[in-house]
Task: structure prediction
Amino acid sequence: MAEKHLLEIKNLTIHYQTDYGTVHAVEGFNLEVGNGETLGLVGETGAGKTTTAFGIMQLLPEPAGKVVAGEIYFRGENLLGKSKTEMKKILGKQIAMIFQDPMTSLNPVMTVGAQIEEMIKLHEPGTKEEIKEKAKKMLEVVGIPAVRQDEYPHQFSGGMKQRVVIAIALSCNPMLLIADEPTTALDVTIQAQVLDLMKKLKDDFKTSMIMITHDLGVVAEICDKVAIMYGGKVVEYATKESLYTKPYHPYTVGLFNSIPDLDSEQDRLNVIDGLPPDPTDMPSGCSFHPRCPHKMPICSQKSPSKVVVGSEHHVYCYLYEQEGAL
Amino acid sequence: MLKYFARRILMLIPVILGVAFIVFFLLYITPGDPARIILGDQATEESVLQLREEMGLNDPFFVRFGKYAYNLVVNQDVGKSYVTKRPVWDEIMTVFPATLKLAGSSILLALLIGIPIGIISAIKQYSIFDNVTMLFALIGISMPVFWLGLLLILLFSVKLGWLPSSGYTTLNAMILPAVALGAQSIAIITRMTRSSMLEVIRMDYIRMARSKGQDENKVVFKHALGNALIPIITIAGLQFGRLLGGAVLTESIFSIPGIGRLMVESIKMRDFPVVQGGVLFVAISFSLVNLLVDLLYAYVDPRIKSQYK
Result:
């Protein structure tokens, strides 16, 4: 396996076993992330974004969640073949994660300083003073006065907590940062602050990032590449510019259409008809076909394969397969 | 924190007076004449009447309670036993060590067994271990102590002859009573630990700790248990308070002279001062255990600590 990409996911399939049947959370998922690149993973709730992230980190809820098939190559090595001990050395040090809800992702009975120190202690051991110094520095980096290190999470606001989480995630200078909707739980002004901070730190630390979001505005703000996810699969992948110039997949087009236009007078918002698929009972063929305005007979029979529609832009849709590369 | 502590201690005074009043009233309406019981059936009516007068039993209720409350608050005196004529305080202190020993060993047993088993059960939810544990916990909660006590004596004292069936002075003698009395507490603490851990272990900060590459043992004991302690402490405190109140049945089965037995004997003899003193003592112990639990809350959870001002 050539070390072309920092992260390469092939045909990843993750199922949850529940009382209501098997949930096909992620199904035949393919993705690459290059060095220093920021990829936006976009999709609606239930598309399998977070599950993909947990799959990479191997933090799926046990015993319900299971990687059924696929490979996850990180720096050329398949993470799924690694033992728990080997993974522990990678987690935090090489791949770190920022969770969606800062209110619940910090341990309420530990000081924020101790929670940053914990990460440093695990991967970059040193004397107590060195570790403490480093933790203080990380707090300053995310814009929190170092004197607050002995305070507890409940003494911080939501935005501040997310800064602490970011400080923890970046404290060992990971190569890949997975940010799972880091701004969703914050209000809009704080969102902008946190995004700016992440953008700056990503450049400072030269970290690759997977930014999981359902907000196309966030993508435009911070990402280089975008992968649109629907029903557990990537349906379109492109550079940000290419995607925002010309989206191909009917789902992506629908997403862009549903962004309200400030200039036009509209009583109702544009929506994509129908509902996201039931993950215990995925539609056959292309999982978007029940909602697709351009549905063809073949769509419900077979999953579409990858169609390259431009440099670094491909889409999984029969519309373009027939016409050939545009 | 100190201020909070002082306030809680002061709040004990109304609790004590309230308990004193309720017990005094209940004993007042209890049928049975202490003077008659002391003197026996053969005594003449005159001598009983005379003794009643001497004991102040003929005074109106509020006069009697007033005298009692005055002595209680001003002299910290709870009176003398009608039967033995010894101060009630001495009577209680004679039996309290046995009760404390029994309650202490039971709760210790419950914590040492209940918490680890509860943790393992939670981590391995729905495993065979978990199912078997929960079955035993159910049995433990449902089994009456007098029956379990008798079964234990039958097996370990009578059949096997390993352990003595009564007494409380040696460690060996304490094992059976502590197990019999503690069985329910073990079961309750196991279940509480399990459910509290189950709740915590799904939290984001646990996943966050794992995402740091932290050792699973540290994740469980440092991150999860640290957050799961509050309900465990609460229930353990309640159990300990209950045990300190004396376990009449256990004490009777294993012939341990504890507070429970003292009070039952005193009620039978209409030895009102001892009953009142005993109930007061139990109420105060219970309140103190509660206070201790509240202080422990602050120790394990900084969010609670910040509210104690």
